[in-house]
Amino acid sequence: MVTVGQLVAGRYRVLHPLAEGGMSHVWLAHDEVDDIPVAIKKCALPAGLTPDEEDVFRVWTAREARSFVLVDHPNVVRTLDVLHEDDAPWIVMEFVASRSLQQVLDESGPLPPARVAGIGLAVLEGLLAVRRAGLLHLDVKPSNVLIADDGRVMLSDFGPAVTAEGVRALAGVGIVLGSPKYLAPERLLDGLALPESDLWSLGATLYHAVDGRPPFVRATTAETLRALTDETPEPPRQAGPLTEVIVALLRRVPSARPEPPMVEHALRAVIGQPADRRGLPPAAAPPVPAEPGRKRRIAVAAALIGVLIAVGAVVGLVRPEDRAGSPAVASPPSAAPPAAPAGWYWYISPVGLRVMLPAEFPVSGGVFGVSVAGSATRPHLEISTVADQSANLLETLTTTEGSVGMLDYRRLRMAQLPDGAEWEYTYRSGGLLGDMHALQRLVILDGHVYRFEWEVPARSWVSELSRFNMIVDSFQPSSGG
C-alpha cells in the first residue's frame, strides 16, 4: 500500500498519484537528495502467482528495468534508478510535465494526419534509440506516449520485460505483457518479441490517434486472439495520407512490415518534409507471395533503394571493377535478374548463387558461399550453406552460440521466423572496431538452409540494417541448391 507522504528508499517522498495501469501505479515524488520532482512506479505483482513465480517476476522486472538506465534520448523518458522495496520493485523515472496521447484523444477526439505523423516520428526515434541499446519497449500504446508541456513527444512506461529473454522468463510464469489491443500478432499468438513487434504497436497507436479507436476494439484477450488469427484490421477511415504506412505497419507477418527508414520517409512526407513515397507498398496490396519454402520481403525492402526495373536477357554479370582492376564475371543463372539500382550490383558465384550487393562490397570466398570483408566503416557479410538440415533451427543457432568465445558477448534475442530463425548479439572486438553488433539469420529456401552472418560496428547498426535486409531478400541459390 502506497500513501501520500511515504518515503521510499529513504529518499523519494510520495506526493500524489499520476497514473494507474494494469500492472503498475505511477506517483509524483520529490527526490529529497537531488531536490527534483521524479515519477516513481511500483510494479505490482500479478494476481494468482505462486511464491516461486512471484520471485521470478521480482528478479526479472528489476533486471530488465536496470537495462533502461542506459537509454538517454530526448524522445524517451529516462529511467533514473531501480529500487528493491517492500514486495515489488520500484522504478524511478524522469518527471515530465505532460499529458498522454490517450488523454489528448479522450479530450479532443481524433487528431489530423499531419499531427499524428509528427507524433509517430518522435515515437519512432525513441524506439530506434531503444533498439540501439539492444532493448525493446513492448508496450507502445497511446497512454504510454507523452505530449510534454514544452512540445516534446516522449515514449514512457516500458513493459516489465524489455528483452527477448525477459519476455520468455515472464511468459514461463503465465504473464503476457502489454495491452492486447496494441500487441503484435506474434506477441499474442507465438510469444515472440521482435523489434518488428514494436513497429506493429506503433502502427496500432497511429491508427487510434487518427481514427479515434484502436484497430481491434475487443473486450477480451481471447477475442483479440481470434481476430488476429482470422483477419487483418480494416484500413483506418480518417488517416488520409497516413493510410499506407499504417496498413503496412499492421501487416500480420513481421518480415512484411516496412523497415524504420521507410516508415520515417513516409511520415516525413505527410508533414511536408522531403521523403520518397516509394518507401511503402500500396495500402491495398496483399502480403508479398512466398516463393517455395520462403516468404519474401522484397517488395517492401526494395523500396529503400528504388523500384527494380526488370530487363530482358542479361548475358553476364555487370558490376564495378574490383580493386585489382579486372571486372568480375560469372555465368548467369537461367533467369535474368532485374537491373541493379545505382550503387548496387549482382554477384553470381560459379555455381549460380546470386545476390545483390552494395557497390563498395568486394567479394571473396569459395564456390558455395560469399564473403565480404568488414572494416571500420563497412559491415562484414558471409553467406554459406548449413550442413545440418535439422528442422529445429533454433537448436542449430544455440549450438553455434555455445562455441563462441567473444569478448563481452551478450545475446539480444534468438527467435523463430516464418522462414527460418535469427540470432542477434553484441560483443567487443579485440581490434580497432570496438563494440560490434551482429546478426545470424538462417533461411530455408528450396529445401536447403542458408546462413547469413552480418557484423557491423555498433554505432552503424541502425543505418546499415536496411542494406542487410535488402541483401537477404535478393538472394537466390543455384538451381542445384
UniProtKB/TrEMBL annotation:
<keyword id="KW-0723">Serine/threonine-protein kinase</keyword>
<keyword id="KW-1133">Transmembrane helix</keyword>
<dbReference type="InterPro" id="IPR011009">
    <property type="entry name" value="Kinase-like_dom_sf"/>
</dbReference>
<keyword id="KW-0808">Transferase</keyword>
<feature type="transmembrane region" description="Helical">
    <location>
        <begin position="298"/>
        <end position="318"/>
    </location>
</feature>
<feature type="domain" description="Protein kinase">
    <location>
        <begin position="12"/>
        <end position="268"/>
    </location>
</feature>
<dbReference type="InterPro" id="IPR008271">
    <property type="entry name" value="Ser/Thr_kinase_AS"/>
</dbReference>
<keyword id="KW-0418">Kinase</keyword>
<dbReference type="Pfam" id="PF00069">
    <property type="entry name" value="Pkinase"/>
</dbReference>
<dbReference type="InterPro" id="IPR000719">
    <property type="entry name" value="Prot_kinase_dom"/>
</dbReference>
<protein>
    <recommendedName>
        <fullName>non-specific serine/threonine protein kinase</fullName>
        <ecNumber>2.7.11.1</ecNumber>
    </recommendedName>
</protein>
<keyword id="KW-0472">Membrane</keyword>
<keyword id="KW-0067">ATP-binding</keyword>
<keyword id="KW-0812">Transmembrane</keyword>
<keyword id="KW-0547">Nucleotide-binding</keyword>
